[in-house]
Write a structure and sequence with these properties.
- The chain has twelve helices and 13 strands.
- The chain is an alpha/beta fold.
- It folds into two domains: about 100 residues, Orthogonal Bundle (Arc Repressor Mutant, subunit A); about 200 residues, 3-Layer(aba) Sandwich (Aspartate Aminotransferase, domain 2).
- The strands form four sheets. Strands 3-11-10-9-8-4-5 form a seven-stranded mixed β-sheet, sandwiched between helices. The chain has a two-stranded antiparallel sheet with strand order 1-2. The chain has a two-stranded antiparallel sheet with strand order 6-7.
- The longest helix is centred in the N-terminal third of the chain and has 15 residues.
- It is elongated and about 75 Å long.
């Protein structure tokens, strides 16, 4: 039998070239739905690469939705129709097309992430109790067991929180939008680094808020500049990604974190701390929600440590009774600060 051999690009890493060749072959019909790919060791020998390279390439092709691995059998081209979830996920193939979307901050790719997620989803599919809960309505704050699990996980990652302080969200972006719509009214001003997360700008536009850019340097947001801004007209809220600014990657220094907490108390504004850009505990600074817990909301997401497509996150709310940091306003006015 003739073994399928990819034509590899001379540019880029070997495993990506193989994954791209698989995607191209599926698109052209050279690899048909249900067709088995060559055994990894055999393909590695024919291409003159390590078996680890082929293993990583197959995992990347599976992550993109082109193939599926069957334990004890091999790797096969997916057979789902065009309307299936696999085909939908396979539609995002920027890397296979030779381009990379720099508007997104993505964790380093690793095949074990998708493999572990696949095992968990398989377990869920056979658990009738979990499936039943998934089709039922849930509390707006999230299922208590879920909040407890998130709190335990965040604490283990070096972000200690209590389950009662958490509000479950549909990812970090959802958490940001909730905070802006809750704490600010249309036309009000919020502040952020002059180079900041595009999602914050989009959420502010949807909420009809004006975003003021605060100058920054190699140590993060310039607190003297923020102080001058507050002296003129304090913003309702200051958004900051202190541990890894998106898009610059700069870390907000410890002294500036203290200064930010002091400015928030002096000028009575809220702090929205975006903790989605996860860093190991040894590389992070003191969380703002611990320096100024009474006026800081911390947005967390599983995107960078687990899977962005799951759309799971949490908001750490200020201490006190549930939702005590906000109250209903007049009809159609949304929510406002106490």
């Amino acid at each position: 039998m003739t073994i399928w051999l990819p034509s590899l690009s001379s540019q880029g890493t070997r495993y990506r070239s193989i994954a791209e060749a698989i995607a191209d072959a599926v698109r052209r019909g050279e690899l048909a739905p249900g067709q088995k790919l060559p055994p990894q060791r055999r393909l590695a020998d024919r291409l003159g690469v390590t078996i680890g390279t082929v293993t990583r390439a197959y995992a990347e092709a599976e992550r993109q939705g082109w193939v599926v691995a069957r334990v004890g059998s091999g790797t096969y081209v997916r057979e789902e129709d065009a309307g299936s979830s696999a085909a939908f996920l396979a539609g995002r193939s920027d890397a296979a097309a030779g381009t990379f979307d720099l508007s997104l901050s993505l964790p380093p790719p690793h095949p074990l992430r998708a493999q572990a997620l696949g095992r968990v989803l398989a377990e869920i599919a056979t658990d009738d109790a979990v499936l039943q809960r998934a089709v039922e309505y849930q509390s707006e704050r999230g299922v208590p067991a879920h909040r407890e699990q998130l709190a335990a996980w965040m604490t283990a990652l070096g972000m200690p929180v209590e389950a009662e302080a958490l509000l479950v969200t549909q990812g970090g972006q959802h958490g940001i939008s909730l905070v802006l719509q809750t704490l600010a009214r249309p036309g009000e001003r919020i502040a952020a680094d002059v180079l900041t997360y595009p999602g914050l700008i989009g959420a502010a536009r949807q909420a009809h808020l004006k975003v003021l850019g605060v100058p920054m340097d190699e140590h993060g947001m310039d607190m003297q500049a923020l102080g001058r801004l507050c002296a003129q007209q304090p913003p309702r809220l200051v958004y900051v990604t202190p541990d890894q600014n998106n898009p610059t990657g700069r870390l907000l220094g410890e002294d500036r974190r203290e200064q930010l907490a002091q400015l928030a108390r002096r000028h009575d504004f809220w702090i929205l701390e975006d903790g989605v850009q996860y860093l190991p505990e040894a590389e992070r600074g003191t969380p703002l929600y611990r320096l100024a817990p009474e006026r800081t909301l911390f947005a967390f997401s599983t995107a960078k440590v687990l899977a962005g497509g799951l759309r799971i996150g949490a908001l750490v709310a200020p201490p006190g009774p549930a939702n005590a940091w906000a109250k209903p306003c007049a009809p159609r006015a949304g929510w406002c600060r106490r």
